[in-house]
User: What shape does this take?
Amino acid sequence: RLTDDPDEPNKYIFPTNTTLAAGAYLRLFADGPNGTSDIHLGFSLDQEGEVVYLFDKASNGGALIDFVEFGNQLPNLSIGRLLSGNWGLCTPTFGSANIAAPTGSPATLAINEWLASGTFPFVDDFIEIYNPDSLPVDLGGFYFTDHPIGQPARHRIPLLHFIPGFSYQAFIADGNPDNGALHLNFQLAGEGGEIGLFAPDLTLIDCVYYGQQRTGISQG
Assistant: This one.
């Protein structure tokens, strides 16, 4: 069984007698039936990130066999298991061995802009990151915080979360992480505060300290 919701493990149930030869690949389409003989799951995947689960059949006890968590995805690039066994960014291969796509260094990422006192039409606080590298960078497992000293790991970015090369990505600081991978679990203080971006090992990548903010005006 395949699903993107562990509370609904039966979103897709493989038909009886579905087989997969040793060393072979089975391609599944995350969309609705379209009249072809391909396997269509009946649900789609969120480009901003979610989790895909593989469960055993209910008659075998229904145990979780495997899963993969991913964050923001890039056009025309896939996620796949690499020769190391780790997940990584790939060039789509459609039924053959995965080919790793080149990625850049996260050490050059920079906090580029923030809004801490929003009003219509930009109501929610946000933090924008800039990637100056020509290659995409994996932000998966990095941390955002509004307390660099004391709480550096306040919000964890989902694994396999990519930002394109020479590009910007805004994270909504609305305190509602359940709304998606681009939403943080804290808001920014309009009277002044701090923003920090940390690597998975809690190495500081960038930080800013700001004073009293003007409503509806960002800084960058």
